[in-house]
Specification:
The protein is about 25% helix and about 35% strand. It contains five helices and eight strands; from the N terminus they run ββαααβββαβαββ. A hairpin with a 2-residue loop joins strand 7 and strand 8. Helix 1 crosses helix 3.
Length: about 180
Amino acid sequence: MPSEPILQLRSCLMRAYDKGDVESLAKAANNPKIARWLRNTFPQPYTTDDSKAWVSIATSPSPIRDFAICQPDGSAVIGGIGLKARDDIHYRTMEIGYWLCEDHWHRGIATEAVTAFSDWAFDKFDLLLRLEAEVFEGNVASGRVLEKAGFVFEARQKKAIEKLGTVMDTLTYCKFRQGH
């Protein structure tokens, strides 16, 4: 039985992952067009074993910071969204990351999800002042999602990463808690 949604939106809902998500998660995530824009910890190919491992990881921390983006009825995973807490002097900053199944691209789902999830994060984590997202050079669509969700381009880190044998820049987008 899927968990209660943290957000019910027009185009999707977000909820904690559960063991019943293994098949739909593996199906949605197994796409090199998704993996090329994510860190190497996102496997490609994405198998059911990878899906089982991720569900176990995503449901264990407290508080849970990684959520499934699902079809509006919650029946199938179509993407993922989450937060990575920073520490030490950066403890008031979290990194946001997300991905969406290719079948659901260009429908406004990612923009709606990132906008609502950002608001949820600022409401849920009292000390959070800054959300930031790292976009790989060339991922114009993700940059546009972030801009439409209220993030602003902050910086370009030159030759910051190597993905699939190509050295490229990363772009940092950020959004601040209102009133700060």
